[in-house]
Specification:
The chain crosses the membrane at residues 510-529. This protein is α+β, with helices and mostly antiparallel strands. The chain has three domains: 7-205, 4-Layer Sandwich (Aldehyde Ferredoxin Oxidoreductase,  A, domain 1), CATH 3.60.9; 242-426, Aldehyde Ferredoxin Oxidoreductase Protein, subunit A, domain 2, CATH 1.10.569; 436-502 and 521-606, Aldehyde Ferredoxin Oxidoreductase Protein, subunit A, domain 3, CATH 1.10.599.10. It is 39% helix and 13% strand. A six-stranded mixed beta sheet has the order 2-1-6-3-4-5, with helices on both faces. Strands 8-7-12-9-10-11 form a six-stranded mixed beta sheet.
Amino acid sequence: MKGWLGKILRIDLTNKTYKAEDIDLETQKMFLGGHGVATNILMDEMDPKVDPLSPDNKLIFSIGPLTGTAAPLGSRYMVTTKSPLTGLLGFGNSGGFFGPAMRNAGYDHIIFEGKSDKPVYVVVTDEGVEFRDAAHIWGKDSHETEDIIRKDLEGSGKRPRIACIGPAGEKLSLIAAIMNDKHRAAARCGIGAVMGSKNLKALAVMGSKKAEVAREEELKQVAKMAVEMLKTNPGTEGFTLFGTASMVMLLSEMGILPTRNFQRSAFEKAMDISGERMSETILQKKKGCYGCVISCGRGTKISEPGYEEEGEGPEYETLALLGSNLGIGNLNTITKANYLCNRLGLDTISTGGTIACAMELYEKGYLTKEDTGGLEIKFGDEALVLKLVEMIGKREGFGNVLADGGYRLAQKQGHLECFMGMHKLELPGYEPRGAKGMGVSYMTSTIGASHCRGYTIPFEILHTAGNLDPIEERGKEMASKASQDMIAAWDATGLCLFASAGITMIEVCALLMAATGVGFGGIFHFLSIGERIFNLQRLFNLKAGIKLEDEKLPDRFYKEPLPDGPNKGAMLDLKRTMDFYCHLRGWDENRVPYYGKLKNLGIEKYSMVPPLGQ
């Protein structure tokens, strides 16, 4: 194969064995790569009802056919598993340099099975696999872990790239992330806890295999054109100038910036935590992942006494969830909290959402000092936020309760109305009453509330993909479905989603054809691959036990009008919208895909309903 490596590495942690296997071309063509093929593996090999923290769960690291090639922004790797936080499909996607290193080692997918009897880290090269004792790094944070492993592997002649967990993953926090390149995170769904449950501290990959493609000169030419489009498109300019933090002021002004646990939608201190303010104060340099021409990453440094540290970020989601959503307007505090999350191996979105849930519970008297170990959990308390992040990562005191996410906290207190999430996964930084397409996407996402499984902001706010009124519900079902299908296929290629701000699916298909030598029949063929992946993931969740009654957003969004901002008075209904969404999807009233839809997509063997007439 070209573009694809055609290889799976299967690692048995229980018996410390491994074997390489071939992937057939038809599977690659149907699911592209990444989480597409990984979901197919889970469906074929694992009971979706498995206990996520048991040895029977599989943890799959994957790349796409464009990862590590000449394709611009081809940096991404994915982790697919069953989530211990949601009980549904779990998925994380990260950039940096780990994904291209997987290609150099020679594998499209690395599957971890079983559980080691003691902490280990695994080294994968193009020559084989080594299981190493991790006793000396168990308990270390992600930065220390990477530094120690690099020292352990000195003299190998190759530069290792490392994905690891911090203390949060070791202690099975259900909001734990997997960290790579110290500052990059495959963060959502508690996938770090799955890694910890297997006693797997880290995966180090290194190799010297060249990225073989079908038509190298053609790929270079298409890549050159794509680079020019990315550099000159106004859609990427904000990311280059101010990083993802460029969204803070825009979303606050548009009335969709989550504030004080989504009780409000605009933050009075938005400018103080914006990308513009970051550039004036803590920014040291712009940073990019492998093959990146946008450089949305921010190398930052805090100089304020008591906060001194260097690192990367924070990104927009972190600024929203650990900033405005907690009533925090001090950029140094948010940045320090971000650094802590990275070291401890925590998802910043879920960490911020969980703390915000605790703050509202405390504000309303549902949570007391007796519950918190004497802590006053108040919005805007900067020192408290830093303390809680550390307590969560180490499962200390009240942090032990928060480490399992906001849903379980609110459930324990008997007030689930204070949890802002879907399927136990905390909401990201977009208020759905003010951008109703995001409400549809949250409700139908295959992993719970996520902006990375369906993103209608380009239709509703940025107007780079369309021009839909953000508080009008009509049309959002179509925008959401199109976005979900596009993203499912786009991610599977190994390209960063931010490339979509400057290039289209036409260029992506051209890149794929040059890399693989396989024909991709334009936009509709590409979208059909995404639709296939999306429906397969839906089937996994149905077989895992997802319930229709759980597939709605918190009551706040349906019953409490937005109290401020340009969308003041807006609420959700979405009933007719969801009916039409199911019609577009080819799903029945219980959101189960019809047999005919699955047959059309070539995955009817997984159907939960018989063909018509049987």
